[in-house]
Amino acid sequence: MIEATLEVKERAARAAYEVNRALCAATGDNSQLPWDRAPDWQRSSCIDGVNFVLANPEAPDSASHDNWTRAKLADGWTYGPIKDAVAKTHPCLVPFEDLPPVQQAKNAIFRATVLSVVRQETYEPKA
Fold first, then answer.
1. For residues 65 and 99, what is the distance between their CA atoms, to the nearest angstrom?
2. C-alpha–C-alpha distance, residues 83 and 32, integer Å
3. Is the pLDDT confidence value at 125 over 80?
4. How many whole angstroms separate alpha carbon 109 and alpha carbon 65?
5. How far apart are CA 24 and CA 109, in angstroms?
6. At a CB cut-off of 8 Å and minimum separation 6, what does 12 contact?
7. Is the model's pTM score more than 0.85?
8. How far apart are CA 70 and CA 63, in angstroms?
9. pLDDT tens digits, residue range 21-63?
10. Contact yes or no for 43/13 (Cβ under 8 A)
11. What is the mean pLDDT of residues 63-75?
């Protein structure tokens, strides 16, 4: 487990969200709003992902996806070919191994971003 203040967790969530948003845009998905305009459910989901990474820093990328899937299903989301926040459908509500490679990579990039921000924020250089 990696300890971090709420402020550091929020910075890590913002950074990971924006990196994810940029990756989505690069693959043609422009549905993500900037962090400051993102709906509460989306920011909360991202913060939950940060908490999972910090509690399980050695977990495989598939575990992060499983955590996200459990949270989505608990909130009433179901699989659907198109992401639709109103209908609560999402095409990534499938087992990790069934995700397209770019979606699998998003889990690794999210984890790396979170760990990088938190480690930078808590880094204390040796005297």
1. 10
2. 11
3. no
4. 12
5. 12
6. 4, 50, 113, 114, 117, 118, 121
7. yes
8. 10
9. 999 899 888 889 999 999 999 999 999 999 999 999 999 999 9
10. yes
11. 95
The owner of tokens 């699989």 is 79
SS3 of 42-94: the string is HHHHHHHHHHHHHHCCCCCHHHHHHHHHHHHHHCCCEECCCCECCCCEECCCC
Tokens standing for 55?
Answer: 């509690």
**Rounded CA separation 100/29 (Å):** 14
121 vs 17, higher pLDDT: 17
Total residue count of the chain as it appears in this document: 127
d(CA 23, CA 29): 8
Taking residue 97's Cβ as centre, other Cβ atoms within 10 Å add up to: 8
Cα 124 to chain center, whole Å?
26
Q: How many CB atoms lie within 10 A of CB 53?
A: 25
